[in-house]
Fold this protein.
Amino acid sequence: MRTALCLVLIVFGTTGGEVSVTHAMKQVGEVQSFAIKSLLGFLRRALRQPWFWLGIGLLALNFFALLTLLSWENVSFAIPATALSYVTGALAARLLLGEHLTPLRWAGILLVSAGVALVTLGG
Amino acid sequence: MTSARTLQLRTYALLVPAILFAPTGNVLLGKGMRQIGEVRHYSPAALGGLFLRAFTNPWIWLGIGCLLMFLVSFMIVLSWADYSFVMPVLAITYGVAALMGHWVLGEMVTPQRWLGVALISAGVALVTRTPSSSKVQE
C-alpha cells in the first residue's frame, strides 16, 4: 500500500511538475534573443510565475517520494517505475497542454519508456 | 514568428548542453558525496555536520552549478518546444550516463543495459523526426 502510494507520488510529481514548468514557460513566451540581458529578463519573469513554483514543488515531492521508497524497496524495483512517467507525460502533454502527438512521436515515446525500464532494471 | 528551421536549430542548440549538463552534474554530486562519506548517523548534530561538509565541498558546488545550467536550458527550450518532444529526447541522458560509467569510471555495463540504451536511442530517433513544436508548420 505505502509502496503504491509512493509510486503514484513519484509519477504524479514528475509529470505534474514538468507539465507545470512547461505551462509557466509558455506563459512567459518564446525566447527570441540570446543576449545575456534578455535571458536574465526571461528568467526573472519565469521566477514570478506561480506555475513555475508549483512545478518546482511537485518535482521536490517526486524527489522525496523516491528517497522514501528507496528506504525499503530495492533500487532495481523503484527506479524502473520512472519509465511509466514517459507515458503519463505524453498523456498530460496531449490532454493538459493541448500538444499534437503524431503516431510517430507516440511510437518513439513508447520505445524510450521500454528502454528506460530495461536500463534501470537490475541485472 | 521564428521560422521552423531556425526553431529546430535553436531546439538542438539547447538540448545538447542540457543532455551533457544533467549527467555531469549527477556524476559530480556523486563524487562529492563519496568524499564526504556514507551517512551513518541521523541525529540533528550529525546531519548538520553533513550539510556543512557538503556545502563546503567544491565538487558539490560544481555539480549544483551543472544542474542549474540544465534547469535553465530546459526552461528556455520549453518556451517554444513541445513537452512531448523534449521529455523523450532528454532520455538519451541514460545513454550518456552508461557511456560515462563505461569509459570514464570503468564500470561494467550489462548487455541488458546496452539493449535498453539501444531502445532509447531508437525511440529518440523517431521522436526527433517529428517537428519540435506543434504550433509551427514545417
Notes: The CA atoms of residues 47 and 53 of chain A lie 7 Å apart. The mean pLDDT of chain A is 91. The radius of gyration of chain A is 17 Å. Chain A touches chain B at residues 18-19, 21-22, 25-26, 28-32, 39, 42-43, 46, 86, 89-90, 92-94, 97, 99-102, 104-105, 107-121, 123 (CB under 8 Å).
